[in-house]
Structure formats: C-alpha cells, structure tokens
C-alpha cells in the first residue's frame, strides 16, 4: 500500500464546520503535520447554526496556538462549481476529504432537492476538480477520500454488513445519493486514474455532534420531561461509532491511497477502495437510551431521581429507517491495523459531560 506523509501537504476538507469535518481539522491541527488546511462549509441552517459556529471557534482558538500550519476557512457551497474550481486552482490540494453533504434519512423524504444539490452536483464538482488537477502535467490530487454511509446497505438481511455485499436496494434518497457517490468515484477513478476511497460511516456520535441525531433528540426530551418514542418497539439496533474513532480511521485512510496500476489491457485498474468504519458491535436502541439517561444523571444534566420508565414509549418503524446497522470492519483492520473500539458508555459519558 502506498503511503502519503501528511507533513508539508495541502489538505482540503469540505464540510469543515460539520461534526466529522471539524473534528478532523482539530486532529490535524493537533498533530501539526499538514502545511495548509483549507476548510469549506456552507454553514446552512439544516440544524442550529450556533453549534457549527462553536466548532469553528474551537478551530480558530487552536489555529492561534499554531505557527507552522496555515488554516484558511471559506464559506461556500460545493454545488458552486466556480467556487470549487477557484479553490483547486488557487491552493492545489494534495489530499481532498469530501465530508460536505446533506445528511439525514428522514429529511430526504421531505426535502429531496437539498440532497441532489449537495450530494450529487456538489460531489460531481469535486470529482471534476480532482480530474482537472492533473491538467498540463501537474502532480494533482494524490488521494480523494469521501463520506459514504451505512445507509447504502438498505434492508440487507445479511449481517454484519460487508463492503463485498450487493447494495442495490436503497430505502431512502439519502442512501441512493451515497451509493451514487461511490459509483461516480469509481467511474472517475477508472477514467482519470484518481485514487479515491469511500468511507461508509456507521451512526457517528459524540460531543458537539449533529443535533438532528437521535441521541440529541433523546437528550432534549429527557431534559423537558417529554416522552421518548423508541422506534421498532425498541428493537432497532445501531452500530454506534464514537467520533474519535471515526477521525482516527479517516486520518489513516488519507495517508494510504489505492495504488495506481494497469491491467492486462494496458488500461488503468481503478485505484478505488471502500471501507466500513463502525464499532462492529450493534447496540439495542432501548439500551442506548437507558445508558444515555444514566450518564446524563451522572453528569448532573438530569436530576438524580429521574424516572426513565415513565418517559419512554415504544412505537413502530419510521419510513426510510432500517432495523439494524452492523459493520464488518475486517478490511479496515487488515489494511490499517485499526478498528474502532470506544465502548458506548465511554462515548456517551463524554457527550453527557460536554
């Protein structure tokens, strides 16, 4: 496997005010290796903008303590082709990590336009910019890493989910756009020899996460004393993956682009890979909420006498949801010697303390 050292590299991270993107920027600043980090984010109001601004302020605070890394933040939409081309032409990134996307399964049912704009057109713009980064014999982008999702597995019955499984039956537009990203990346890898790696994330959680995620909603309802609806009568299982594990996985993958080589026909074999990043340990949603309320009590967010039993209600499945997500991470472990290992209580404790 090829290795790219991060030192003295220019790294473009889209979605850099997002949950995963901002944590990746912080980690790269802490290790102090890249020469320059370019962050791009539209800071849209899909969820509370103040949490995005809080993440950006954390980055700024850390940048002010660094003297060896140039950090540039650009507010803009990856669906704006001129902007993306300008960024690539001005900064000539060595590594591109595309985390900008319209997220969420349920929102895609009521707001499909947002998914086509960001996840299809936006990703196309990134691919095209990567393609043209090689024009006029320039060295160009050495690795494109992009966010896919466990949603691509749809209602596959076989578990754990393997990247070798067929994923042709999405149950939401969000999942369909993520599968499309993988197909588009494969085509561009084949046609233009662009090393690309897709990462299928499994239910990422942690401090300052996405407020539209279930654990945030559960916390808000617990605080208000509202009833928590637990879907599929409590029988949903999710492979919850702590943010630090996700960031460590991305950082390792960034440094190892798929190898460029030609096949027997003399044409490039696509330098293309896809990995699952999950905890390989699905948790029952009912247990998840129970541990969450225990940790919120421990952190004194909830009162010591909080009665969880009277605040829960078991309800049927929602459209677009899947009953279980479960990652087979053997390929990640094989190629990088890494697998996520933060247990649920540890992760939820850090969230509750935050």
From TrEMBL:
Gene3D superfamilies: NAD(P)-binding Rossmann-like Domain (3.40.50.720), UDP-galactose 4-epimerase, domain 1 (3.90.25.10). Residues 11-278 form the NAD-dependent epimerase/dehydratase domain. The keyword NAD applies. The keyword NAD applies. Keywords: NAD. This is NAD-dependent epimerase/dehydratase family protein.
